[in-house]
Inverse folding.
């Protein structure tokens, strides 16, 4: 199995607006720690995939489509062989459209596309033979942010390691389900939050200083123990995630002759379709919610009004918004 990696700094200059919190005062004022685009290229006898994982809140669909078009023309990769994903840090520039959560930044996105291309070319250029190792640690850190009676946190810290024959690591993928919002809405400094510190710690712990991609699985309802915490706490929590798998990865035996195949599917996610009366009733109810009104003020009112007018316009034109498409990548491994 051939593995290629690359890591490109994608940190914007202070002054960009940050994405993820409506309650945040804009724009950013400083850089707390750098953001990176990390490219991982995998190839075997039957399949290849280019995966680029970035310290960003997410990717607008147009960014993905433009990069895939470039990768097809310049790298010979089909759209289904190119995956872009993000750590979902809430302290990075605006690369998706979110109402009242920072303005989308076309200038930064243009620079980002150049960085993604550089990372892709570098990863493909220096692919080398590696063996696969896998392990799983446990960590009871994430909390149910809704404070429901029945908790549904996931204590597993899963890791894939790509190791050279001299037992140094070229790349590692680590997954722990926890929302990267520890810096909170009070933070105005650019940061990769906990995933950045997990990657930094693990890269220093393992021989070879591997590129480390930190993902967070089904983290939508799972938060760190607290928000608006100092950076030292971010370092500590990120370190705990890394520590959960570092020794296990170093000692893990190789998987025999691993093969992977890529599966790509688009699933329609159903949404509740409201009629005109339902839209108006929901908007009125939302504007009676005292908590976001107190926290966000006019931002919340504008967001509700944008939602209302958008759905009313769709209903008046006969368009029924009853689903959103979700593209899912699966990489089943066989040994």
């Amino acid at each position: 199995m051939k593995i290629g990696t690359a890591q490109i700094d994608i940190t914007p200059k202070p002054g960009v607006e940050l994405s993820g919190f409506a309650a945040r005062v804009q724009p950013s004022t400083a850089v707390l720690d750098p953001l990176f685009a990390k490219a991982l290229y995998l190839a075997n006898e039957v399949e290849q995939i280019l995966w680029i994982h970035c310290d960003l809140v997410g990717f607008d669909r147009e960014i993905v489509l433009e990069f895939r078009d470039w990768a097809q023309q310049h790298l010979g990769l089909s759209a289904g062989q190119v995956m872009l994903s993000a750590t979902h840090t809430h302290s990075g520039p605006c690369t998706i459209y979110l109402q009242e959560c920072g303005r989308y930044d076309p200038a930064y996105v243009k620079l980002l596309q150049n960085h993604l291309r550089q990372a892709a070319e570098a990863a493909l250029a220096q692919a080398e033979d590696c063996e696969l190792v896998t392990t799983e640690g446990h960590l009871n850190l994430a909390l149910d942010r809704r404070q429901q009676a029945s908790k549904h946190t996931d204590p597993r810290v899963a890791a894939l390691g790509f190791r050279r024959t001299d037992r140094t690591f070229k790349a590692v993928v680590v997954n722990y389900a926890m929302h990267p919002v520890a810096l909170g809405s009070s933070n105005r400094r650019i940061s990769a939050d906990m995933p950045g510190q997990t990657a930094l710690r693990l890269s220093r712990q393992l021989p070879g200083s591997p590129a480390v991609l930190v993902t967070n699985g089904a983290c939508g309802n799972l938060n760190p123990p607290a928000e608006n915490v100092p950076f030292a706490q971010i370092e500590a929590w990120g370190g705990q995630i890394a520590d959960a798998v570092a020794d296990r990865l170093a000692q893990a035996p190789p998987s025999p002759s691993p093969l992977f195949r890529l599966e790509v599917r688009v699933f329609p996610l159903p949404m509740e379709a409201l009629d005109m009366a339902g839209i108006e009733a929901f908007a009125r109810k939302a504007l009676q919610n005292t908590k976001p009104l107190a926290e966000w003020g006019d931002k919340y009112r504008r967001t509700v009004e944008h939602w209302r007018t958008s759905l009313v316009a769709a209903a008046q034109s006969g368009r029924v918004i009853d689903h959103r498409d979700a593209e899912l990548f699966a990489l089943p491994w066989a040994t």
